[in-house]
Amino acid sequence: MEAWLALYHRKRCHLYQPSTWDQNPLPAGHLQQRHWEWLKKLGEHRGTFDDGQHLCRRVLRDLHNLWPGEIPQHCPLSLPYASLGTLFKGRKAFLQQLHTSLTKATGKATAVVGKTVHGLGGVGKTRLAVEYAWQHRDEYSAVLFVTADSPTNLQRNLAELSGPLVLNLPERESPEEAVQMAAALRWLNTHPGWLLILDNVDTEEAASYAEDLLTRLQGGQVLITSRLARWGDQVEPLELDVLEEDAAAALLLERTAPQNGGRGRKPLPDDDQHAVALARELDGLALALEQAGAYIAAQRISLADYLRRWQAHDQQVQTWYRAREMKYPRSVAVTWQTTLEQLGPGEVALLNILAWFAPEPIPLFALGLPCTAVHFDPEENLQDAKVAEKIAALWREAAARLWNAEPPAGSAGNGERADSPAQAGQAALREALATLADYCMIRWEVAADTVTVHRVVQEILRSRQPQPTCWLSLALRLVGEAQQLAGHPQDVRTWPRWEPLRAHIAFAATAAGQSDIAAPTATLLNNLAQLLHAKALFTEAEPLCRRALAIEEAAYGPDHPTVATGLNNLAELLRVTHRLTEAEPLFRRMAAIYYRSQQTTGHAHPHMQPSLENYRHLLHASGVPPDDIEQRLQTAMQTPGPLEPITPEIERLLGPTQPVPAVLAALDEPYRREHKPAVWFLPLTEPIAPHLEALLGPSQIGLPLDQPVASHLEKLLGPAPSTQDVLNALDRQYREQGKPPVWFLPLGEPISPHLHELLGPIKETKQA
After folding, report:
1. CB 432 within 8 A of CB 350
2. CA dihedral sign, ordered 31, 36, 39, 40
3. Tens of pLDDT along 362-374?
4. How confident is residue 766, by pLDDT bands cut at 50, 70 and 90?
């Protein structure tokens, strides 16, 4: 009736329809429905509303338009950036979600936080808040932006709102900041309908102050941007993800489009493909995309050129920054520095290690934590518990190295817990992961039992580590321990554990190959190749076998039994793929190495008989008569080639006081049962003391069990002033010759020349 009365008197009719009306319409013949359709045909002004508050804002806006001379036109607006316009891509759904959250009548503020790692610095939280404010500024009585990265800055910036360019309050002339801030808060509480953005609330202190501020405000909406994921009940968190690949590629193409005046990218025919590749490499991180676009436009280079520089870890493209062109406060290389400074050594050490994993989900069992998806539970399995304890100890060692800090204790509270070492280590690791997730430095997927580090974060961490090889070695050791939890790769029951490890083994091993780290790189590659072999993924397995063999030959020499194992793995893969003529020379060489090893030590290598059986299968498949197969094997094994044994060296250095061959023979069987290499070929990268104790008796060894052999040599010989100098000189010499450092020399090689170089004349060696 009101609508008909207004139309009769030729008045403008304002119609407001609930936004849910079209979802539940009345029947087409209903009088009210017919009336509404007739009103819409008149073309009268109308709008939709979500709730009572939304309706009030629409009515106030329409009244303002009816009497513009009587209602003040000033709408305070303070935003740091102009709208991106069409460059703001891929956020439509999230903006709608944010609008719904802000306008619903819950009495809560809305905090735009990240979805764990995807909410870390640079994901685009500030830019999204600003774009939302520009798009909805007509719905608010004021749109105010305040940087709130610390309580002090929040107070100062709130006080500045009273200034002439924003609220223009009388208190702006007061010399006291507290008076100006109180005036700004009083204005907010007496002028409902405002939007206040609190930006970069990234510390616990700033978050506590912001939450306290919320209790002193009323009548408006507060939008918080933060890297913190945990908030109190008065703040509703929304999770912001990275840009989708297609939106990121479209952003790069539009941001770098050639312009009048020569700015913009160097165009190439395949720019579309390069944009997708670069978007994938930067993984949708808004800051990295903006930095890339600004750099490409400023330098007039192509998308392909920037992609090559980024993949080559070019420091210039990582640290490049121009405030006017980027509209960001810092470059991608330093954007997480504030967060890192708030983390403890345990969290930073864990991040530095995980930087050398692949940018794929990392299973929790790889960190020694229970993982139901792969049936890993240290509390039920003694072997799992031992590995979990090793992983926790490795992490504590890494944390202790960092800044010479105390290692994480592994338990919370008053320190009275009596957990096992494995349980204590798990508790500490879980706390470190929780802290990293709270600061949005990782994504922790609880349902999948995985954590993920953003690939750009990993790239920056790797490029800025003071000792990257050290952290890579720790990552390799951690992956190696995880392989033990996974089990034998050719057992189909272990595949659920192996699958999530595949990408991480391949990534870490590739990085280790580039850094000339032999151990345990070859073992990792061989085990992964066995998994792929068992799955009949021969094309993927073959290059891994070849890389592992090349590493073993470079590290141990061409005649070491470890090389024979690698030869067998590659030859067996060639055999099952019917490349018999390629496989036969490898099998022949393998047999010769194992035979010489048996002749010099008096014992067969544990892998010798299974490998020879593979050789027999190949000879049979090649058409060799059964009577000639054994003759061929004997001929192959007796190929000349000396391999100097280590046993006489031990006797010569330490005296014939122990029956060394007898001890070796006794140790051979238990080492076979535990699937370890024969003791006389044990690499010195493993703790040497228990092996020497087993060989020589505990009376001659009083050494710690967890250090490499160089430390033991120094303790055996005393702190001679020249020891470290000799080690350093030998290290340089061995690296130039492509050999491993002497203190990690495998015992399968003659050791006396190396000890002679280390210790000087033979009389000093005998005395040692």
Report:
1. yes
2. negative
3. 998 888 887 765 6
4. very low
Q: Residue with structure tokens 């059986």?
A: 613
pLDDT single digits (tens) 73-127: 568 899 988 888 888 899 899 888 888 888 775 555 555 443 232 356 888 888 8
d(CA 695, CA 703) in angstroms, rounded, equals 14
DSSP structure class, residue 604: -
Q: CB of 396 within 8 A of CB of 407?
A: yes
The model carries a pTM of 0.69
Helix (H) or strand (E) holding 322: none
Q: How confident is the model at residue 706 (pLDDT cuts 50, 70, 90)?
A: very low
DSSP state of 68: T
DSSP, collapsed to helix, strand or coil, labels residue 238 as strand
pLDDT at 645: 38
Packed helices 468-486 and 345-354: angle between N→C axes, nearest 10 degrees: 80
Query: At 147, which amino acid appears?
Result: T
Containing 390, the helix (H) or strand (E) segment is helix 382-401
Q: Is 147 helix (H, G, I), strand (E, B) or coil?
A: strand
Residues near 461 by Cβ (< 8 Å), separated by ≥ 6?
Answer: 351, 352, 355
The DSSP element (H or E) to which 425 belongs, if any, is helix 421-438
- Helical (H) or strand (E) element with 223: strand 220-225
Cβ-contact 279, 90 below 8 angstroms: no
- Between CA 628 and CA 640 the distance in angstroms is 21
Q: Could you tell me which of 150, 159, 228, 226 has the C-alpha nearest to residue 187?
A: 159
Q: What are the tokens at 364?
A: 């929790």
How far does Cα 28 stand from its chain's mean position?
A: 57
Q: Is the peptide bond before 80 cis (omega within 30 degrees of 0)?
A: no
Task: Report the half-sphere exposure of 132 (CA within 13 A, side-chain side).
Answer: 31
The secondary element (H helix, E strand) that includes residue 573 is helix 561-576
Strand order in the sheet with 450-452: 362-363, 450-452, 443-445
Cβ neighbours around 219 below 10 Å, total = 12
Tracing tokens 């049979």 back to the chain, one arrives at 620
